[in-house]
Amino acid sequence: MKRRDFLKKAGLKAAAAAAVTAGVVGCAKKEEEKKEEKKAPAVVAKKTYNWKMVTTWPPKLPVLQEGCERLAKRIGELSDGRLQIKVYAAGELVPAMGIFDAVSQGTVEVGSGASYYWAGKAPAAQWFAAVPFGMNAQGMAAWFHGGGGLKLWEETYAPFNLIPRPGGSTGVQMGGWFNKKINSIKDYKGLKMRIPGLGGKVIAKAGGTVVLLPGGEIFTSLERGVIDATEWVGPLHDLRMGFYKAAKYYYYPGWHEPGTYLEYFFNKKAYESLPKDLQHIIDAACMENEHWVLSQFDARNGAALQTLINKHKVNLIKFPDTVLDDLRQLAAEVVAEEAAKDAMSKKVNDAFQNFQKVVGTWGSVSEKAYYDIIAFKFSLRG
Ligand code: CA
């Protein structure tokens, strides 16, 4: 900053000197005044904002916490240092499940998690993260940015003084790690599985016992038989957790989280107190990060899957079609029950279902049809 001011002043002096030698002193003075006038608003705009961001993720968690760090860095770069955001992982400043309230109350300015964590406060929030047998990452992005989904999300968060922005998707997650084979829906009876959210409600409907465990306790619980199965994210994060050492089968696809969207949310008052250009920078950086997050998931999940298959010889199994058909039916019941909880949930679910019908029909003749015709190029091993 100081260096820039110095250079500017030096430039002005040089211009003035040049004008004097040319014998146009009056003119040079006017030029100098004009430049000073132009400089004035720039000085005002240079006010620096120091914000805090709290997340639901452990420190250094690939793509997720890493993505929040990246977002803060990009906002700093794009604003030329005018908006600095310091990122805190879960528990460093606020516990994971406390971040929604902390940002809502304005204790901190920014939060990042997944909107289904806030189902207890706003049931409608779940549709912006993951719906079993709902839309994948591409469909969700289309809904947010091309189908009015983000407007509904803003409406859902407005009573909490929050402004949400889509934070990128995990892509289709994996079905999970199992120590018992799933050949029919009956195999879920008595199955103890760690699976949160709406997916968990579906498993409970199928007769399973849903066990909620913090990330750090899943591996040991699986290894010791406290649970029979767990889902987590996808190959990248699952490999890091070492689940292949504790479970026999790795099932796909993750019907319960077909394209889980992450979120950034901002305290409304803090966001609106920023000059317009900084608000635009936040929006642009969020959208850039949205793209970055999905790209990272796809690229690194692809690589991690190869490691799981070829190095760790993981037994990869697709859920039987009959099981998926039964789960789909149970999921429809669960989603309908959730949608009946309040008016906003009904409104969001109606919009979601209508959009999925349209975008899904298009997807079946575009993305799906294309995947099918090139499927011969890929084999799971080698
Ligand atoms: Ca998951």
Q: Would you kindly provide a written description of the structure presented here, covering whatever features stand out?
A:
With 382 residues, this protein is an alpha/beta fold. The chain has a domain at 49-168 and 260-297: Bacterial extracellular solute-binding protein, family 7 (D-Maltodextrin-Binding Protein, domain 2, 3-Layer(aba) Sandwich), CATH 3.40.190.170. It contains 14 helices and eleven strands. The protein has helices at 2-21, 25-45, 64-78, 99-104, 137-146, 149-157, 197-205, 215-223, 235-241, 268-272, 276-311, 321-339, 343-365, 367-374, and strands spanning 49-55, 83-88, 110-113, 162-169, 176-178, 192-194, 209-210, 229-230, 249-252, 261-267, 315-318. The strands form two sheets. Strands 7-6-8-5-9-11 form a six-stranded mixed sheet, with helices on one face. A five-stranded mixed sheet has the order 2-1-3-10-4. β6, α7 and β7 form a beta-alpha-beta unit. The longest helix is centred in the last third of the chain and has 36 residues, at 276-311. The N and C termini lie far apart (55 Å). The relative contact order is 0.14. The model is unreliable at 9-29 (pLDDT under 50). The site of calcium ion has 5 residues, from loops.
What is this structure's SSE topology?
Layout: H1 2-21, H2 25-45, E1 49-55, H3 64-78, E2 83-88, H4 99-104, E3 110-113, H5 137-146, H6 149-157, E4 162-169, E5 176-178, E6 192-194, H7 197-205, E7 209-210, H8 215-223, E8 229-230, H9 235-241, E9 249-252, E10 261-267, H10 268-272, H11 276-311, E11 315-318, H12 321-339, H13 343-365, H14 367-374
Parallel strand pairs: 1-2, 1-3, 6-7, 6-8, 9-11
Antiparallel strand pairs: 3-10, 4-10, 5-8, 5-9
Helix pairs in contact: 1-2, 3-11, 5-6, 6-13, 7-12, 9-11, 12-13, 13-14
Bound molecules: calcium ion.
